[in-house]
Amino acid sequence: MRASELRMILGGRDFRRLYATRVTSQLTDGLFQVALAGYVFFSPERQTSAGKAAAAFAITLLPYSVLGPFAGVLIDRWKRRQILVWAPVVRAVLVALVAALVAAGQDGVVFFVGVLVVLGVNRFFLAALSAALPHVVTREQLVTANAFSVTSGTVIAFVGGGIGYLLRNVFGGGNSGTALILVCAAGLFLLAGLVATSLPRGVLGPHLDEALPQTREALGNVLRGLADGGRHIVRRRPAALGLAAISYHRFLYGVILIMTLLLCRSHFAEDADEGLATFALMLGISGAGFFAAALITPLVVRRISKQAWIAALLAAGAVSLLVLATPFNEPLWAAGGFALGVVSQGVKLCVDTILQEGIDDVYRGRVFAVYDMLFNATFAASAAVAAALLPADGVSYPALGIVIAAYAIGAALYWGAVSRTRAEPTPVT
Known about the structure:
Layout: H1 3-10, H2 13-40, H3 50-75, H4 80-103, H5 109-132, H6 142-171, H7 175-196, H8 213-220, H9 222-234, H10 237-267, H11 272-301, H12 306-325, H13 330-358, H14 361-389, H15 397-423
Helix pairs in contact: 2-4, 2-6, 2-7, 3-5, 3-9, 3-14, 4-5, 4-7, 5-14, 6-7, 6-11, 6-13, 8-9, 9-14, 10-11, 10-13, 10-14, 10-15, 11-13, 12-13, 12-15
């Protein structure tokens, strides 16, 4: 990441406002997620198994994967600035309702439906951020802008998680303490909506004042709009391969994340409170890997292609897990988490930029919503696999071996597909 280019990007007033909106919201995301993790997975009165962890992830992620394309159509129809203003307000109201359920000790279907909707609105919000970014920076600045805004936003989410952990120590880890943390999160979501009001109206698109009839028809029909967006992706093979690569990685990363949660709950710690502290530390170390990826990815992709870097990162995932994770030793596992954080964020930055460069703006919201759909669906699928493979303490050499082999195979398959695409003659139009 070049300092001179970053200074130029930060000099843009609209970029700064968009970035402030992202940071405020993602700080609150971290706070919200740590409160939920403490309540669902690390409460002393609740025992966590692989099946329960998988069910929690599936309940909160899989249904939104079905709804994702509908959000994408709206992102391409409504002013994105208004989405960024009102989505946090909606989340604030919903989080307050979830806080009331937690205070009453509820953790059943109604509770998870509430969490589902909160997270669903967040995916909608993040898709709008990604679709808006090309309107506030130049095409040449996209890689660096993505590296800075997406990665620092993720790091800020980890900071929010740390704040959530500190608040847990202040308020307590019981129902009332968790409810108070969630009330704080609701207030911060309102602040994110307020920050977004500083963005000028209309600057973030989409610009559909003179939309063609077929475009209006697609926007008026969600399923037809999804099919239209799918055809748009298929015609752009680099974008399609990028989506396949990050979905594949997300599946494998999900297995490791659930394994980490179980290890922290039952293998690396003596009790639930120590387990939560260990899990928070693991997430923080992984967040440092995300930050490292932001520093090195723009430098690397100026020397090699984004596709080559994705393949190298997937291969690095296999090597790092083989060397660092196989002993199931806490310090080495943490080092492996750092390496996998680099892999995860490096792949995401490359895929984000490939999509932003290769997708027409009128389709960009739908494509990024489908991106989020795949992101969540593959994670939910990984939860189901993890439930079948992992014991309650998370220690499974066969499961870890499968993930290591899958990373290596995925790197080879992706690079082979990219190489074949480049070797194909350009069709005459």
